[in-house]
Amino acid sequence: MKMVIALFACSAGFALSAPLPQEAWRDLNVRYTIFSGYTLSDRDAPTATDRKLAILVDGPAAEEIFDSIGPDMPSSCSQEKGDRDRQKQGVQCNYTARRAAKGYECWIGLDLRTGKSIPTASC
After folding, report:
1. Residues 6 or more apart in contact with residue 45 via CB below 8 angstroms
2. Can you say how many angstroms the Cα of residue 36 is from the centroid of all Cα atoms in its chain?
3. Which pTM was predicted?
4. What three-state secondary structure class fits 97?
5. Cβ contacts of residue 86 below 8 Å, gap of 6+?
6. 3-state helix/strand/coil string of 42-85
7. Which of 28, 41, 74, 94 suits 22 as a labelling partner, its CA being 20 to 30 A distant?
8. How far apart are CA 122 and CA 94, in angstroms?
9. Is residue 95 a contact partner of residue 87, using CB atoms and an 8 Å limit?
10. Each residue of 50-92: pLDDT tens digit?
């Protein structure tokens, strides 16, 4: 019986110290568009057979995503000194040095027909 109580107390202690799932979630303000075509630069109206979702994230959330998908790509779309690009499959981020603290933007792309991650932004 003492062993059961000890195990319960130990389990309760771990449960109280672990963050609850909802505490790990943060607010996120995004903009999105649903389109057809290969990328946003050549987008058309969505069709029955071609529907893609592009989500634009900026601010602190974009900075956190940018930091998470490093390293920088060898060359940047921009030729401006200090600008940086990073990409992992359908997650593309850039940092614009002249905008400093507000310089982070990320695009997240999904093909809504297949569920696959896709790049949506181009240089």
Report:
1. 35, 36
2. 21
3. 0.77
4. helix
5. 66, 69, 70, 71, 72, 73, 92, 93, 94
6. HCECCCCCCCEEEEEEECHHHHHHHHHCCCCCCCCCCCCCCCEE
7. 94
8. 11
9. no
10. 999 999 999 999 999 999 998 999 877 888 899 999 999 999 9
Residue type, 36: S
Question: Taking the mean position of all CA atoms in its chain, how far away is CA 72?
Answer: 16
pLDDT tens across 2-55, in order? 444 444 444 455 555 566 688 889 989 899 999 999 989 989 999 999 999 999
Residues making up the chain, counted from first to last: 123
Report the distance separating Cα 5 and Cα 11, nearest Å.
10
The CA-atom distances, in angstroms, between 112 and each of 36, 107, 119 are 10, 15, 13
Residue type, 72: D
Residues of the chain by 3-state class (helix, strand, coil), percent to 5: 30, 30, 40
Q: Is the dihedral of CA 29, 33, 37, 42 positive or negative?
A: negative
The CA-CA-CA angle for residues 19, 24, 87, to 5°, reads: 140
